[in-house]
Amino acid sequence: MNGTSWSHSRVTLYDQCPLAYRYRYLDGVPDAFTTIEQHLGQVVHDVLEQAYAERSRGGRVDGPWMAAAFERLWHAPDLAAHRVVKRGATAEAYRAEGLAMVDAYHGRVFAADATETVSLEHRFSLALDAGTGRAWAGIIDRLALLPDGTLRIVDYKTGKTVPDPRSDRQLQSYALHVFAERHADRVELCIEGLRAGVTLTADFPASRAGEVRGHLLARIAAIEGATSWPARPSVLCDWCGFNVVCPDAGGAGRRGRRRSAW
């Protein structure tokens, strides 16, 4: 698999379910559906990207501006195509949650944010080693410059779980790119937990780049060396876009809940 592009989402999918990994990355099976949670996350990210871009152009971004941007993006032509999996939930309830997230973020962070935007939704591909051509790809939600000159890598999270930036391998891997591109000796890692309404930060020095690179290469080598791809059934199977082809979707104790229409 020399020359393969790797990412945090790719490695995470293998950890969650090797069979789902095989379907997506080895067999090229397309997801049968997308979920309302995916739509929610994308819309919130897009609103914040547009808000910081507008502010960088000198525009005025207040709470109503963010709300209007959210509503415009939420009501996309394909809205009905995003599946609501959670029992008893509705798309309208998710819309209200997302609107509350961007409104709270404006009041809690955006309105008083004195950092300078360096880049938004910055896509990168970083060579991990010269011998195999393995590359690590990612998208940095926002790269900001603090008043003291420190670069801050910001990642938005709309889920219930908020990772700890002190140990988050996703942000640490993004730091490798910033170190290589910007020649910084340290960065600040920042996770914005939008649902929880928290901002978590951690200092990360360039001296740890080798450690992170070694970890990524070891994880990649382990996945490349896999000879079997067992399913790992869990409650997440209902949200998996491969459950229409997976023989173990939902686990033995949950097969009766599998929706054949998927």
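Second entry:
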Amino acid sequence: MPKISANKLLPTTLVGSYPQPDWLIDRRRLAEIVPPRAHARELWRVDPSYLEQAQDDATILAIRDQECAGIDIVTDGEIRRESYSNRFATALDGMDSENPAQIPSRTAGRFQTVPRVVGKIRRRLPVQVKDVVFLRANTDRPIKITIPGPFTMTQQLFDEYYKDEAAVAIDCAAALNDEIKDLFAAGADVVQLDEPFLQAQPDKARRFGVAAINRALEGVKGVTAVHLCFGYAARVKEKPSGYSFLPELEATRADQVSIETAESKLDCAILTRLPSKQIVLGVIDLQDMTVETPATVAERIRRAMAYVPIERIVVAPDCGMKYLPRDVAFGKLKAMVDGAAIVRNAP
């Protein structure tokens, strides 16, 4: 059974990703390209016949780092993924990833290679259930698994079949709904939808983003989260000081909303507009390679506590840690755990 108490104040977790070892993936090339939406098999350094075994070994390293740092709710580090989104999306029927298209990236002046939608989107088989089973077998702590959200999926493909983004989003959500139920059945304690494009495309998100998320979470029994961010710090050098889409998530079925506050120095007053949600509070700046002191982390947590009761806060980095050097990532996790302990002991 998990060793964290359900009533523990300020539990700590990752947003999702942790640095992959250099022996597993070409990290220099990874940093050069837009996060893959279609396949990017050329990133892996290991022969395909040994790749799954190597990914398993690297996943155990990520789990052990989290445990050594004192993280309460552990992820698999997304070690098996070329990006946060393509492992699930490219596994669906209706997606052609072998003959992809090019569309503008949300980073101005850049393009991304994306799957083409050539038929009805369906999930034929579970995609990430094996990842949950492996994670559950290798830690006795509560576990979280992440998966791309339905709105973000619509912004990372080229639709040649539906000609209707809202319809694409709903069918993506239906596929996600099947997957999420299986992820909980396999042992997940938290399932998180990654939805960064809600922030990047707020007007479009207001039209069908919430409906798509609610379809993905329909009938789901288990703790669910929605993560939205300003983009990886390695990609987006200047973060806005406020979200263009956030209060709208109060209308979703999700239990938690995961946000950035450290690098952006977010005005946490906006959190009062999410009165029913737990807040997964980003308190680790992933742009700054200096490891925060626990006191700095504690101060960032207390900024949010002016607007959110301590009982509703989960502590996390701003975003995924995929692009950080591993020693920096570990140091930041340890500082985050120690900072949360400061506040927990003297709120």
